[in-house]
TrEMBL record:
InterPro entries: Imm33_dom. It comes from the Bacteria. Residues 112-122 have a biased composition (Basic and acidic residues). Coiled coil: none annotated. Residues 101-122 are annotated as: Disordered. Residues 51-119 form the Immunity protein Imm33 domain. It holds the Pfam family Imm33. It comes from Rhodopirellula europaea 6C. This is Putative secreted protein.
């Protein structure tokens, strides 16, 4: 009986000092060649609405990624109200886009709401 408290103390101290093994999550990142390139963000997204559509067109110049990130609402928007963000800023705002951010020109992804999975669309 005298050894039981000692054994428990040792077991607890060993358990407290050990860390469970965890698998490292794969780190997704923005391709450095487009990380600081510009992307069009609609005014609604810029003010907090979720991104529901992402389309990559041919870039207009070397500083353009070709990406457009939109709220996909039916509300007409004035092009003058759109903003230019870096691709990195968009990825920080919406990390669920990271698996697709390096996709080629012609890629279009959409989802029905902020909690839905991204799906290829036309």
């Amino acid at each position: 009986m005298r050894w039981l408290p000692f054994v428990l103390l040792v077991a607890l101290s060993v358990g407290c000092n050990s860390k469970p093994e965890t698998k490292a999550e794969p780190q997704l990142s923005v391709d450095p060649s487009i990380a600081n390139s510009g992307a069009i963000v609609c005014a609604h997204v810029a003010t907090g609405e979720p991104i529901l559509r992402a389309t990559r067109d041919n870039p207009m110049d070397p500083d353009d990624s070709g990406w457009q990130f939109l709220c996909d609402s039916d509300v007409d928007e004035r092009i003058e109200d759109a903003q230019i963000w870096s691709v990195t800023q968009v990825a920080e705002r919406e990390p669920s886009l990271l698996p697709f951010i390096n996709s080629p020109v012609g890629t279009t992804m959409s989802r029905t709401d902020a909690d839905s999975e991204w799906k290829p669309s036309q």
